[in-house]
Amino acid sequence: MSTKKDASEILVYVYNKHRKLTSREKVEAETEWDTGRIDNTIDYLRNLELIDVTEHNNNIEALGAHNDPQTPIRLNIRQTIISLTEKGIFTVENTQTFNSTFDFEIGVPGLFKFSWQVQNL
User: Measured between alpha carbons, how far is residue 46 from residues 2, 59, 95, 109 in Å?
Assistant: First the structure.
């Protein structure tokens, strides 16, 4: 599958399922695509200014591992947030713009055909 087709799927997926905002981790879990494929898709959508990507680092302190439960450990949880831009939303909602951007017609966004099994859309 081409990066352009992958990008159209991720754009519609974020629009339909997450109402314009999701995490990269959710996309990875849902699509089961390899890291390179997701990176290429995100870069493609960013270059078209259809999405914004924000990195968040959260430090979490918890009690230690099972072999030393009294020693606190610090975890750094990194999360990548993908949000649709106004241009991205317009592209999904305007069939002519979607067609000219991705070279095929979207039809009804809620009935979009994905290359993977979308859960609970």
Answer: 16, 27, 20, 20
Domain limits for position 63 = 3-111
Token pair listed for 18? 């997450």
DSSP-derived letter for residue 119 is S
> Is position 118 within any domain?
no
**Is residue 53 in a domain?**
yes
Write down the pTM of the prediction.
Answer: 0.73
The pLDDT of residue 112 is above 90? no
CATH classification at residue 74: 1.10.10.10
Helices 35-47 and 3-18: angle between axes, nearest 10 degrees: 80
pLDDT tens per residue, range 41-91: 999 999 999 999 988 776 666 666 566 666 666 666 667 889 999 999 999
The domain total for the chain is 1
